[in-house]
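Allow me, if you will, to draw on your knowledge of protein folds for a short while. The matter concerns a single protein, recorded as an amino acid sequence and a row of backbone structure tokens. Kindly check, if you would, that the fold set down in the tokens agrees with what the sequence suggests. You will find the record immediately after this paragraph.
***
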Amino acid sequence: IKGYADEYRRIGNDKPIVKRSSENKENLYILQVDDLKDQLSINMNLKVGVDGYQPNGYMNFPQPEQGKYIMKSYFHHLESEKRVPIEKDGVEIGFKWVKKHSGVENHFFDINVYTLAAKIIFIDILKKIGGSKYSKLSWSDYCDIMPKKD
């Protein structure tokens, strides 16, 4: 995978979030990272419903217990970037994601971006090798056809 970000992401731009490279590199996928970071931000703000329902994209985080999962910097990584609106004549025309400051680490933020892209890439590969059987396959369709564990 290779991340790609324009100077800023125009609002209403209909470029695919993930696409196969056109550089004759069959297994290379280009990611529109600003769009993926937007989706990740939305997912991080999802709340569990009063009935315990977790909306699609809800992020479950491990709870520190018995000396495990005690990485204090994990959430600092997830909060390392911010969305900056790009305005023209007082109207937002786009946005970009930037580090909050130069010394901040964002590795776990980026890993979660790659995870969002992975399911899109996985479905694309299934469509490629499955022919017409999977030509209209979506992630939801894939989840529906997978065997459920009891």
